[in-house]
Amino acid sequence: MRQAGRYLPEYRELRKAHSFVEMCTQPDLAVEVSLQPFRRFAFDAVVVFYDILFLVEAMGAPLKFTDDGPVFLEPVRGDDDLKALHEPDVRSADPQKGTGAVCETIRRLRETLPPEIAVLGFAGAPFTLAAYLVEGSFQRSGDRIRRLINEEPAFVRSLLERLARATAEYLCAQVEAGADAVQLFDTWAGVLGRDAFREFALPYESTVLGAVATKGVHSILYVNGCSHIVEDMGTSGATVLSLDWRQDLGEARRRVGQGIALQGNLDPAALFQPPEGVRRSALCSMEGLRGDPGHIFNLGHGILPETPIASVEALLEAVRGESR
Amino acid sequence: MRQAGRYLPEYRELRKAHSFVEMCTQPDLAVEVSLQPFRRFAFDAVVVFYDILFLVEAMGAPLKFTDDGPVFLEPVRGDDDLKALHEPDVRSADPQKGTGAVCETIRRLRETLPPEIAVLGFAGAPFTLAAYLVEGSFQRSGDRIRRLINEEPAFVRSLLERLARATAEYLCAQVEAGADAVQLFDTWAGVLGRDAFREFALPYESTVLGAVATKGVHSILYVNGCSHIVEDMGTSGATVLSLDWRQDLGEARRRVGQGIALQGNLDPAALFQPPEGVRRSALCSMEGLRGDPGHIFNLGHGILPETPIASVEALLEAVRGESR
Known about the structure:
The structure is a homodimer.
Chain A: H1 9-17, H2 20-25, H3 27-41, E1 45-47, H4 54-57, E2 63-66, E3 69-72, H5 79-84, H6 100-112, E4 118-124, H7 126-135, H8 143-151, H9 153-177, E5 181-185, H10 194-200, H11 202-213, E6 218-222, H12 230-234, E7 240-242, H13 249-256, E8 261-266, H14 275-287, E9 295-299, H15 309-323
Parallel strand pairs in A: 1-4, 4-5, 5-6, 6-7, 7-8, 8-9
Antiparallel strand pairs in A: 2-3
């Protein structure tokens, strides 16, 4: 999950002088923002600061970040829209043309940080990117993309194939730049029923994760609202599954078996309790995997903007006390 | 699930001359709209046309229906907002003051329809109503209500208790007016993790469902995104669980056991396939409960506005063929 953000005063300070896009795409700024949470909390890993949608912008889809979230100004809904997309130049340093900025940020982070601190790259998974492109802006249950996979399945498959190729190349470039592991966010894929997930999300996740595997690094797959598809996620080729706050960790272990790490799953909203409550919730989240060496503690979704710093501190105290 | 709506040309025709609110709150219109799908498709039951949020408006919360959905103009987030809410007059015929309109519509439907056709009333469950009130307008994952249950749990409990009392009285009034069964929509409760669901949704569902049970009618509980809480739903006191398109019906039966009916669960987006695909998806949805007498076929969420009529016809043909 993203570590940096508006809950940090040092982030808000920098944000006064720079747009979100600048902070993602100018490596000087992105390195600084990526390091802010590490300096404050000494996390085990540093997640590079960037956005999953820049890859799609680099394929020719005009993108705007608004107060209500990102918007694709020309949603992709037909063959002509699809033809207008081109292969991204994942290594170009020009943010208008490619996603080289994230590689440069990763390179500098890897040079700066001690070797025992992992640098994590990430990407959106093909279904989630397709959902953003088709919907234009985030809708609560993805009605439009779910409709389109029923109405025009061949069109959606073409779009997914192109996004899968681009995403595979993109994550491989991140690994070549120095990422020690990568996260694949299929945030929206939980809106799909199991059969649709198996047809329109899982195979494309597998394409991307297979390419990452050839680079010899770990890969982490996240789906929000994953309780109905945990077993399928286990077959994706990811070496780690990242679970949301509604999926019990111990139950997930029973469903996917051994041989795969599990990451998660505290509800970010739990950080709005007093510190004692935060500690209790953290311990409760970890309970089902007590003694399981394949557990990476994490939130079950992105940290919320107004989260109190004291809560993050209480959380880390609880988790580190438990991990000793 | 709502049966009437924009997918029907006769609905769109009536809608040209009347607002959505008028069509819900003027019994002449509401009876007509409720009967439109029955006349066309001869469903086994008629769902009264109304909206779950009018009850909360009748408690003093100003409500507006916009193109983007309903909005509470003065979100309820503190004790003063809570004090401003009053008990609703669930029997008042004045739509500004109470929800008597829905009772009158139910009364007329019950008088009009043959006795073998059930008339279904409905309400939003306390957590879902609270989520709407706190968020103001629909947000994708209910961040604000999830935050508030952590930050101000006592406040949220007070709000839920008041909503539970009002909803219980409201549904009892619908049964007294002639509803043969009622649906309780806890649409948003799937955003809660299991522990939070048990604390902030389930007990209030049970209060309402307990009151309905004293009237001797069946009650149907729906939660969208319910895969992690199916067992808990089974303990709510509902006599029927209505499941969304991500929850396999056969698996739900194994989890809740016998003695409770299951309703669902075709993805409304599946109705955008050609008729042959619709038939296949319908059969596939029913497969897990083949031969199970406690299955009520339904969609897994509300029908989408542009759904082709031919798809509904193909669906009914498949379901009726199977039920013979």
